[in-house]
Structure formats: C-alpha cells, structure tokens
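Researcher: Next sequence.
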Amino acid sequence: MKKTIGIIGGMGPLATADLFRKIVLMTDAASDNDHIRIFIDDNTAIPDRTLAILSGGADPVEAMADSIRKLEQCGADCLIMPCNTAHYFLPRLRPLTGIPFLSMLEATAKACAAAFPGKTAGVLATRGTLSSGVYERALQSEGVDYLLPEEEDRDRLMQVIYKGVKKGAPIESVRGPMEEVLNHMSGADYFILGCTELPIAAEGLALPQRFVDPTAELAKAAIRFCGYQVKDPVQ
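Model: Next structure:
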C-alpha cells in the first residue's frame, strides 16, 4: 500500500510551497490519482530557528510538536520539514512521534557523496545552521569534504535569505550578495543550497554554478519512502 507525507511547513511558507511543487514534479505520475497524498501544516507560528540557536530566542519545539500532532491525526506515514536549520531540533522531535522523520541533511549528504565523489562542497546556509554544525556532521558521516563561508559572507547569506526571499523582495535585489559569496568560496567544486530559501534565489537568478538542492533531495527521499518512482522534473 502506498504511503502518505506530512509536511511541517511555514519555515517559511514559500519554501514549503517549493517542497510541495518539487514532490509533485518529481513523482512519476500519469494522472492526478497517481500522485502522493500530502498533508501540509503551514505553521507560520513556529519561532525563528536561527534566533533560538544563536541568541536564546523562543524555543520552536512546542510549535513543531503541535504540527506533528496535527499531521499524525491526518494519517501521515512520514514527516518532513522544509527548513535546514530546523533539523538542529530533530533529536528532540523524533522521540515525540512514532512516525518516521526523514532528514533533509542526511539525504543531501548522500546525494553529495554520490554525485560529486572526491569533490569539495561549499555550504551555504543560515548563521544558525552554520553555527550548530549540523551540516558538518552530516557531510562527515558520508565522507564529503566541505568549505564554510567566512563571517562577512555569512552576513551576506542572511541578507539573501531574510531581506530577499523571506521578505518577498525582487529577486534581483540579492544578486550582488549571492554572487559575492560564491566568488569568495572559489575553493568549492559545487555548492549546497543549505537553506530552503536559497534554491528559490538560485533558480530565480539563473546562477551558473553547480548546486545540490536539499529541498529536491528531501522530495526524492519522501517520494521513494512512500513507494513511488522519482522522475526528472520537466523544466
């Protein structure tokens, strides 16, 4: 029997929509009835994850737990979160439910190891994600070499994420800081778009670098978990 997906969304809303879109585009389906049943709780009340990690902001776990309970009631067979930084809290979330939690970071690290063996990844992410070390641990577990951005480039990434995509600003307004970060990390062979707003920015800016998109990798993992086939999305 085919399984269903529960998405803990709202972190942010556009990233949630992007994950849903990628699941639909990458599911091998010939009709509406061939697609996966998906439950989404677009819980925009979840406190900011980076603020919680870096500066003692409100703990997001209880709000995430509320989403888990709602998705359990819907009948979700697996849970996914379109927020890289939120995976810092995954060890506290998994014990709250018997439903399998699929990790965006684990899926991304496996994809990097398979697609770019022996190459170095540049990790682009929020300050919360970079400070927590969650990506480093995931990549190390798969033997993936990586580079992290310098302090000034971390500020530029936060500008792209928060003042660009999350704010709904014109995408061209973040071209400058995004390109500066990529140019400064010249030692990387490819880049991990390790915040779910960054694939949206990279696509909108039509950047030429090689990227691994964690949102797409999570979508593929969820599709396979549910017993469906993955296809390449039509561009």
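Model: DSSP finds eleven helices and seven strands in the chain. The mean pLDDT is 97.
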